[in-house]
Model the fold of this input.
Amino acid sequence: MSNEASYTWQQKWIAIAPKPFSLLSILGSSYILKHILTSKERRSQVYHHILLGLCAYDIIASFTMFWGTWAIPSGTPNVYLASGTIGTCNAQAFLQQLGVAVPIYTAELAAYYFLVVAFGWKERQLKRIEILLHLIPSALGWTSSIVGIATNSFSDSVFWCWYSPDKYGLRFGFFYGIVWACILLVCLLMALMYMKVLMQERKVKKYQHPNVVGATQTDTDRQTKQQRREKKASASKKIAAQAILYSGSFILTWLFASWARIYEMVNGKDAPFAIQALFTIFSPLQGFFNMWIYFRPRYARYRLDHPDFSITRFICDCGGLRSRLRTSGGSARANSTYRVGFDPAVANDLHDSSNAADKLSSKSATIKKLATNGDNRHCRNSTMKVVAGEDGGIEEENDPCQRQSTVRFADVNIGIEEEKVEEIADMIP
Done:
């Protein structure tokens, strides 16, 4: 009892507070992993591969934060619940340092959004650089952890075991230098993305014009183009909003941790308790934040589709994706149908391909403009119904040639590229 009373409530807070928040992060990242791994389509997409790496390393980092002061050698002065050994301390520090991959993956996620929104990158282009997206964070994480063990640089660092307080070079070079560089990169990419979306919105407003009674076919074509521009701007805006949320949670997670460590390095003593307390709350929560952001669009669509909504039903339905019934309201675009006339060879190639999305968006695909004069010769060509799924996949099914249901594309190449942006908006949760 006397030993218990020898610790201040601040020391007890530092030891206990990270544990419940770390569990929330572990559960959040685990649920995202489960959601991705149980879908063959999601398992094949670069975006979800980045999230897999992010969540895997976040689980490791969150576990070490939950472990907390338990791993610190027993008898360490002023450390509540210290009950470990030098071995457990080194093991915890090794795993903790692997967590440097988390901010790198988060920066890569921001870069992914930027490439998709600003440059219109396709899945096939992203796959060419995917190996680097996993090699860089893993190499830095494992190398820095091995260096820490090899140089005997790990010891107690107040909250858990990590680089010793006197190892400023290793702390900055292998961790906080990387974290701050990632924060700056994320802020830069988000600013550029915001400018890109703003330019798209201005472009849409520039081409807006009032509907004219008795409009000519040219006017109808312009209206069709305008509608596509508005859809593209709306989709890009949604993608950018999702990216900003991921980036904002990332900055919030590392803000107080950076503040505390900078204070330690500059002043040679622990940061004020208020900063330490915020550190113990927000630093372990990134996995929980990521889960909330990941399922936020699905949550919104699910509420629209189910008037009898309940949070329990939403969770049991795995984020609302088991339900394929869509309302006729604002969420209908996620399951919208585009009918395009293809050459039979192109249509068969698309059916046989495992990457129909890239085939559809490729400018090399031969697309015939369907005239509105009722010419029946187009019925000799196969017509395909292409459904943009909720995760951005392309669902295909054969459909009889029905002229009255066919969408006429005024500008084929631009039209397909704009529809692809809408598919990406649904693919990115």
Remarks:
- The chain has two domains: 2-198+234-305, 330-416.
- The chain has a mean pLDDT of 75.
- Strands lie at 154-156, 161-163, 337-341, 383-388, 394-399.
- The radius of gyration is 26 Å.
